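User: quick one, fold this
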Amino acid sequence: MKQLAIVGLIGLAFGANAQTVFYGGDFDGRDGLAAQVNGPAISNAVVFDNFTLSGTTTISGVFGNFLDGGTQRGGGLYWEIRTGVSAGNGGTLVAGGFSSSASSVATGNSGFGLNEYHYEAGVSSFSLGAGTYWLGVAVDGGDGNIYNSTTSGTNGVGGPLADGNSYFNSTTFGANFQAASDFVGAPADFSMGLRGSSVPEPASMAALGLGALAMLRRRRK
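Assistant:
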């Protein structure tokens, strides 16, 4: 197993209809990349991985799985969603924030002598239209270095999965939306995701309306 790359957001108050609208997948044991905004050695490092939406989606929560080298869990989650990200280009920030009330639960996974924790937090609901986006999540604080786990897409939701289209942004490490593969040695995807609910497309909504009308007609007979 290769050495962990040193340069190597999240509360379930999403509402009854919240679903996982995107999840990159479970930790594959291969590597990790720094994902921490206020730590003892790493103070500005965020990993971004891409996802696509086929229709309007309401986002109500963010999460990620992290290898944590400390004994004191981080105090919250920082997150961003961007469009148009490419090498050396951060694109456009469309949503982002910080949650100080993120939960932290051990996943039972570990790697490189570090235990993995699932950080999750609710966010004020907002909508994203159909398209391609990049999600970045990072843990705030903690008393050790924290790394976003890599994934091969196992148990992932949505997509694309395992396409290696990820970037690393960090003033600490001098990375300006640099390909994550430059730091972990190979194309990589990362274990992070979003909760929310999809809004039915117009055709689907029309079909639902016709179904309700048919039921009403049957009741009147």
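User: anything notable?
Assistant: Residues 5-16, 204-219 have pLDDT under 50 and may be disordered.
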